[in-house]
Amino acid sequence: MRLLSPPLIYRYIAREVATPFIISLFVFTGILFLARALKLVELVVNKNVPAGDILLLFSYIIPRFMEVAIPMAMLLGIIVAFGRLSHDSELVVLRAAGLSLKKLAIPVLGFASIAVVLALVITLWLRPIANHRLGLGLFEIAKTQASAGLVSGVFNELGQLTVYAESIEGQGQKLNNVIIGDRSNPDISRLFIAKYGKIVSDPSRRSLSLQLYDGSISEGNGLNFTVTYFQVNSIKIPHSALLGDAATQGGKGADEMMLGELLRAANGVSDTQNLEKNSLAKYQVELQKRFALPISCLCIALIAMALGIQPSRSGQTWSASTSVAMGIGLILFYYILFAVVTAIGEKGNIPAWLIMWLPNVLFAFLGYYLFERMGSEKWMAVSQTVAESFSSLFERIRLLAQGKHA
Known about the structure:
Layout: H1 6-45, H2 51-87, H3 90-96, H4 101-148, E1 156-158, E2 161-169, E3 174-182, E4 189-202, E5 207-221, E6 224-237, H5 239-243, H6 259-266, H7 280-308, H8 316-346, H9 352-355, H10 358-374, H11 382-405
Antiparallel strand pairs: 1-2, 2-3, 3-4, 4-5, 5-6
């Protein structure tokens, strides 16, 4: 029959998965976004940043959360879709029409492939650009805070620096008769006195410094002090102390590099930084991560399908809840495992290409096992298996309890 032709059924299955996938994607992205947004609001509101700049910074953090939310949304979307198909007995009709569960995996894998492409676009293009612009945005806030926040004739606190200037010209362009106390080293007192100075920024390195001219440094402890005179001296201002975000300094990070830059950095070559041998691991890990996380959608798809299929008779509500709970637990386990292998990989003791793909390999084996089992006549839904196992366990406990009382 034309109505039961595989292409039509495949499109129907894909539409069933798409709706809960899109809803779940918005929900998961929103939850992850809010967790970060609250911290960012607290960070920038106290610095009197314009609302437009705040919204722009918010937009830059969305891609990093979408990258994580896509596999989560796909897993939940497939579980919900096949749970509904099972509940309405549509799977029974499809199997009676000659479509096996293995054949129904074709549209699921097709949808997962689309999710992989979407995730790759985010990891290889959108997220690096957004992370880089977020870093630059936070640096500009730090720069503005350091320059425009200084008040003449007042002791200003800049992190661990106390800055006094008799007069200030422009937005920190020139500070006249400057006195600076440096508390960065608690064992040594350091005092800078200069005729004038200015705040200098280096956008490529995202560093801020106070450039001092015609002055002296008094440093020491107790009664032992030395005085050094200088023509020009520079004091670095850590804007992490101003903004509370150390990730914004030091130039481009691994998660901000485009694929070409990351490949060069992973091979020990960088356009802007002198890379040390022991720092290559984080670039190599980031390179593998950009491909491993999107590919996980394929590994998760078959597992989600197996979790979504419900028993055709009683216990459907309980089994559906079990499937969703198992799916959430499974994806949390995946991300915990992914975080663990990332931490191990960044130490550089194990090749990044080996350790970063371990979670995908484990989930691929589990997915393959369930896929093969789905083709068997003895196939039982995962949730039903769990439900019956718990029922059997509770029955044994009840019998043991009765035996003790007897």
